[in-house]
């Protein structure tokens, strides 16, 4: 009797830490000098920026949606200054951008101001000319079958990245929540009220069922009233 070989084992997915900042009334972007809804930079405080830098030092790869990379004019992760008597640190982690359209400016600082080649996670549905232009600008372009969180994380795992720092934005985080792929959330609340049209830290077509339960793993308050919240899931699923 002919029997099918068993499917290959599912590779373990990387651990996903999400970091987001919001105002007390839930806004994820504050207006800056340019027109538009603004960016998270308009919200961030010194304590939030310090946490951000610390988490970037500890991750293998920064994962971000194209909307954020475009709105916040993302650049490569900076090399951190070594402590006295410490050997020079290795290359900074790459920034991996999720984009269905590949509509990123090859002249953007994401490609021109980086020590580590950015990764562009896209599909064959994105125009080939755009994909080629990003590759020519120095990006490591991964053409994936789809941009489902499982596919994105499997690709990052295949590249040897075990720790992923997701810096948003809300669309990408919503997809990760829907896929139950968020292991840790670092949520910074800054002591301002904004009102206005800014959205939540995660959005998507449907709410997760059941809600993804997290537990408070730590918290700290900065002198300026910034609250740094650290939540984790109870257990990391062995096979994503
Ligand atoms: N407060 C915070 O902590 C924080 C953090 C990050 C961003 N933000 C703010 O959030 C706003 C941007 O929001 P956003 O929701 O547009 O951000 P986003 O999630 O970074 O970007 C959405 C875009 O990314 C691509 N994408 C993300 N996930 C995808 C998926 N699973 N499948 C296919 N494509 C995917 C698509 O790009 P294409 O259109 O290229 O196909 C989509 O249009 C900005 O104002 C930014 O400043 C705030």
Comma- or semicolon-separated keywords:
240 residues, alpha/beta, Dihydrofolate Reductase, subunit A, nine-stranded mixed β-sheet, globular, binds NADP nicotinamide-adenine-dinucleotide phosphate
Protein architecture, described:
The structure is a single chain. This protein is an alpha/beta fold. The protein has six helices and nine strands. Strands 5-4-3-2-6-1-7-9-8 form a nine-stranded mixed beta sheet, with helices on both faces. Strand 8 (about 215-220) and strand 9 form a beta hairpin. The longest helix has 13 residues, at about 45-60. The structure holds NADP nicotinamide-adenine-dinucleotide phosphate. NADP nicotinamide-adenine-dinucleotide phosphate (NAP) binds near residues 43, 65 and 147.
